[in-house]
Automatic annotation (TrEMBL):
Domain DnaB/C C-terminal: 126-198
Family: Belongs to the DnaB/DnaD family.
Organism: Lacticaseibacillus mingshuiensis
Highest taxon of the lineage: Bacteria
Lineage: Bacteria, Bacillati, Bacillota, Bacilli, Lactobacillales
Protein name per Swiss-Prot or TrEMBL: DnaD domain-containing protein
Amino acid sequence: MNNELNAYLAAGQVALSNALFSGFATSDLTQHELIVYLFLTQWASQHDEAPELDTFAQSMKLAKNETYNVIASLIKKGAVQLVSRQDEAGRAVDQYDVTPLLAKLLTAPTAQPATVQALNAGRQIFNEIEVEFGRPLSPIEQQTISDWLNVDHYEPAVISLALREAVLNQAYSLRYMDRILINWERRHLTTAAQVQADLKRQKNGL
């Protein structure tokens, strides 16, 4: 019995909020996404950097590409965030922050229509960019778009216009889109109507 107890204590424990379980039914997470989220939570409690994808996928009995897609979806849905920091040696280290999902579950017990509409518009932007780029977005790209929406507060329609400009110039790059968005922001073009009016003036040579 003592050996079993010692093994139990040596294995360590992960604290999980009951909000994860009580809020799961009304969240937009799938069962696979919840499982991966729980494993990411366990990993983050013991490590200071993101897991190696092959090993992490094996620990969940999932294929590597499936794990990659699920993590990308978690980022898209705002459940986790990919953050970068510098370690003691000055190296750039990536880590998955799992707190955004808890913040959403604890502060938004009931989604308002405007909030649902904004979430749907944000997801549409992810889909539009993936279609135009002709490939799935990487977790870092997913995080960049999430930052446009949630940190920079760019309107989804404005991001869509930036995507159109990038495609017209055959520049399938978020970096190119980011330069467009920053340029519009500096010129105080913050709504789709303002951007469209400015593009029309440029087209007419005014």
